TrEMBL record:
Transmembrane segments: 12-37, 75-96, 108-128, 156-179, 262-283
Domain ABC transmembrane type-1 residue range list: 71-283
Subcellular location(s) of the protein: Cell membrane
Protein name according to UniProt: Carbohydrate ABC transporter membrane protein 1, CUT1 family
A Gene Ontology biological process term: transmembrane transport
PROSITE patterns, alphabetized: ABC_TM1
Keywords: Cell membrane, Membrane, Transmembrane, Transmembrane helix, Transport
Annotated GO CC locations: plasma membrane
Organism of origin: Halarsenatibacter silvermanii
UniProt xrefs under InterPro entries: MetI-like, MetI-like_sf
Similarity remark: Belongs to the binding-protein-dependent transport system permease family.
Major location (coarse): membrane
Topological type in the membrane: Multi-pass membrane protein
Length: 293
């Protein structure tokens, strides 16, 4: 009897989410299918008609040094942005997981960057990093330090992009980790205190192990968000100077909409989708192994 009841509940739940799933499938599936179809053609605004070229766009993508360099930049960008976002979120969560005055106000303020659009974040940080009138360089001049060309030098431009995106993404890590910390019973820390454990030992042996589910969720989200980052980088540097901050998503956009090579751009979009699919499968396997452990 109970099994029949549970089956009915599951069926009813699926019926409720079916319209939403169909809508998402249409909104994502149709553009993806069209991009897949277009990737087998040479499609350009400069050509009178589309020409079927088979796998040529994909072969070109694997040989293209610009794509390879964009991939390496993406790896560097993801590694540093993810690491800094997670570390900043963890430190913020630890600081606000205490009885302090104005905790709710601080928590609300720390969440603001995550609620701002990526384009707005890029424009705001461009105002901060601009060489002549930027807030940061004006502050450096006030201190008697020579201004820095934050967005004109390749290494500094990548640094600026990482800082801006860290500011944008760390609130997600902060709120998820803080929610996890608030679920940990005080008795664990009190027992550890009695046993003579210091703060670092309590963090390593109590906080981190009990935050494992929240840490996994945070790292998975940040990985995908950083890997597919486009809007903040585009509005901050446009991929420049030159191609210094051109990550995969930006390279795909430039190929399709700046060079008007829509067939090749579609092939790059499909490859980016496949990379995300592989990353998703790896994370699913990891989570399954964690559940079995």
């Amino acid at each position: 009897m109970f099994e029949d009841y549970n089956i009915k509940k599951v069926k009813f739940a699926y019926k409720l989410i079916l319209p939403g799933l169909l809508w998402i499938a249409l909104m994502l599936g149709i553009p993806l299918a069209y991009a897949f179809y277009q990737s087998f053609f040479e499609v350009s605004a400069l050509l009178p008609e589309d020409t079927f070229i088979g796998l040529e766009n994909y072969i070109t993508a694997f040989k293209d040094t610009v794509v390879q360099q964009s991939f390496l930049r993406t790896i560097v960008f993801v590694f540093f942005t993810l690491t800094l976002s997670f570390a900043t979120g963890m430190i913020s969560a630890l600081l606000l997981n205490r009885k302090i005055t104005g905790k709710k106000l601080f928590r609300a303020c720390l969440l603001i960057p995550f609620m701002v659009s990526g384009v707005a974040v890029g424009v705001s940080w461009q105002w901060i990093f601009t060489s002549d009138l930027g807030v940061l360089n004006n502050f450096l001049r006030f201190l008697g330090i020579s201004p820095v060309s934050w967005l004109a030098q390749p290494n500094m431009a990548m640094f600026s992009v990482i800082v801006a995106n860290t500011w944008r993404f760390y609130p997600f890590a902060f709120i998820i980790l803080l929610a996890g910390m608030q679920q940990i019973e005080d008795m664990y820390y009190e027992s550890a205190k009695i046993d003579g454990a210091n703060r670092w030992q309590r963090f390593v042996h109590i906080t981190l192990p009990m935050l494992k589910p929240q840490i996994n969720i945070t790292l998975i989200y940040l990985s995908f968000a950083c890997f597919n980052q486009f809007d903040t980088i585009y509005s901050l540097t446009g991929g420049g100077p030159g191609e210094a901050t051109e990550v995969l998503a930006l390279n795909m956009y430039r190929t399709a909409f700046s060079r008007f090579d829509w067939g090749y751009g579609s092939a790059l979009a499909i490859l980016l989708f496949l990379m995300n699919a592989v990353l998703s499968l790896v994370y699913n396997k990891f989570l399954e192994s964690e559940e079995r452990a």
